[in-house]
Predict the structure.
Amino acid sequence: MKKWMSVWLSILIATAIVAGCSSGNGGSSNGNVSSNGGQQGAGEAAAENVTVSLWILNDHAWIDGAVEDFKQENPNINVEVSKYGVDPLKEALKVAANSKTLPNMWFTWGGSLGSFYAENGLTADLTQIAADHNWSEIYNQAAIDMSTYDGKVSGIPYHLNAVDMWYSKQVYEELNLSAPATFEEFEAQLQTIKDGGFIPLALGGKNGWHIMRLTEQLLEHFAGPELHDQLNSLSASWNDPAVVQTFEKIKEYTDKEYFPKGHVALDQAEAINTFYPGQAALTIEGTWLDRSINTGGFSTDDYNVFKFPTERVSVFAEMFQINGALDQAAMDATVKLGEYITSLEVVNKYIDTYGTPATLNVTFTDNTPHVKPLLDMATNGGFLITDQALPQEVVQKLFEAQDKVALGEWTPQQAAEEMDKAVNDYKSKNNG
Amino acid sequence: MRIRLMKPWLFIMPALLIYLTVIFVPSLYTLYLSFFNWNGVAPTKQFVGFRNYADLIFRDSVFLKALANNILWTIGSLTIIMGIGLMLALLLNKKIKGRIVFRGIFYFPFVLSGVIVATIWTWMYNPMQGFVNKLLESIGLENWALAWLAEPKIALYAVFVAAIWHGVGQPLVLFLAGLQTIPQDPYEAAVIDGAKPYQMFWNISLPLLRETFVIVVAITMVSSMKVYDIVYAMTGGGPAESTHVLASWMYFQTFKFANIGIGSAISMFLIFITMIVIIPYVYYTTKKSHV
């Protein structure tokens, strides 16, 4: 008896591990899942009152005021907001998609992150609504395009972000520099900044995507727009001289100590702390940095932006996707909420904390002076940011390649070959 | 007679039902999913047999690295964390002044969440402004200052140091509880017989702590096999995927890449490995148990 009890005890202990790790319906979801979330809207189709559940990032603080305003204007629509961090939101959405408990509406990024829900038939097709409600006159067309998959509009455009170079005016003035016009000038400035005792590039590599912002600019420079687009769409081989040149630059910049010490493991929150007080000269950030500068107690007047010396700018969209399983009443209420919180009235009211809206004709305030210049840079053309353009497995391989090149574990040529192999593996797996 | 036989099962039934529902059945479902290529939401799953397992072993270098890291972590936990826990328990079991305060100090980190601990230690390891390098510089050891989390060869060990600080409280408390159940008589007899302290430890404390060791070893082993939060929060599996453990790679495969089958296969590896170690261990120790 004791022997069997021992064996059973062992099995129970061991299976307890899986309880924490299992990936099926038994997987745990974390974060603030609303107890009234899921598809309650569909269940209340005939009811007079409708509840709309919304999942959004926890730093989008403006949403609380906007939802309160909406509820006052629409007393028969109750809105329940659940907030998450970046990775918890991605995880919660995957778990909810798996267990068919997605909320009525959720925030998501464009590209390969948002496409998962659209391509698997989990989002509402908003094409007709977009046409009926004249979205092309309300939202930036680029944002609508980036919310469209397989010809179907799959989300209400929310943000349109442009990512490019930010510099510290204090450092640039001290070193007598001005925004570079050519790539050669940019590289010369990096060395001047280093020689002047400053960190040239305040970028942390812990999560991969901050160094990726430099990688993609270098790739745009060496490959040119056409090949860059082909690489991102996996229609060209990554084992290409332009990719090798890009990785060579990552290695060169690492060896010349253009990044903060130990940059491969540094969180961007740590790296950017060298930029704010003027210990570092440059960083690559998006339109949201004005808000972060203000929040950190620094002045936006002390910083400026310039366009990396390439033709196009890295851009990405964010959107609100709507659950495709809602009934008509819930769908109407959810679309109403989505259009309301992205309306010009709401955006202008909360503009200082709203981010970079996809909504047209917005009035920016002096608190975010660099948003418009960054968006203007994108008018000549943009390329979709790499971690949304590529499948996530390939993105992870790119992050690994960046690290291994910087650490000298792979040569730039090996990195290009490994990227090519990852792309081919992905293609062969997904083509059956 | 029948009622007497049924009684234990009736008592255990509520807990057993919950356990079967939330742990055992999902675990079986995870095993089932590990034989499919599935993204978690598509209406159809492609049956691939053992291909997910084979791919992990023969094609996924990160998986093998993660497996090796888990083994290292387990060995480290069973020796260093458990060893320090036992040592502190022995010290704090003595009648020394302020021992209750010390017990609180040593146990305190264990009540913090792994993510909080990771945040604290990440900043301490910051290569430019961190406490560790500043301390080394202040005592003239600036040559020892490193980018602790940026070197693939030492990053996992740097995380493990944080895990020691965090985790040593658990074995400490369990060993302390075990030590306090040991009566004073054998020690007094040993003193009369002229035994030295290490002899008393070896011949009295250790044998009488057998039951505690069963629990501590099992808990430590399970915890170290499923370690995740502190590694993920401190390094994200990097640099260059060098600090991934099985649970973090399973998270990446499942939630980032939507490879439910592969993520499930990693979970099954975790359970198989743990069972291989735990079953003989619990069987053997229970057989020799006093109860």
